[in-house]
Design goal:
The protein is α+β, with helices and mostly antiparallel strands. It is built from one helix and four strands, in the order E-E-E-H-E. The protein has one helix spanning 48-64, and strands spanning 15-20, 24-25, 38-39, 68-73. The strands form two sheets. A two-stranded parallel ribbon has the order 1-4. It is elongated, with a radius of gyration of 15 Å. The chain starts with 14 loop residues before the first strand and ends with a strand.
């Protein structure tokens, strides 16, 4: 199975990047900065900035490793 950029880069996928997600971003104008845009449990209040940083870290690694596939798991 090829990921969307595989056709553009003929590199085979050799790495899997997994970002463990503990909440669901529902979308919205603040792009996740507003906690109301997240489906979270009460005990997770205040943790959404950490979730965003984990997403950014996964994207950064993907940009540095073109033979990778990024998966969000939760």
């Amino acid at each position: 199975m090829q990921h969307p950029t595989a056709a553009a880069s003929s590199e085979p996928i050799t790495r899997l990047i997994i970002v463990c997600c503990h909440a669901i971003w529902l979308g919205g104008p603040s792009h996740g900065r507003d906690e109301a845009e997240w489906a979270i449990e009460p005990f997770q209040r205040g943790e959404t900035p950490t979730f965003i940083e984990h997403i950014k870290a996964g994207l950064r690694i993907l940009s540095e490793e073109p033979d990778s596939l990024l998966v969000f798991s939760g």
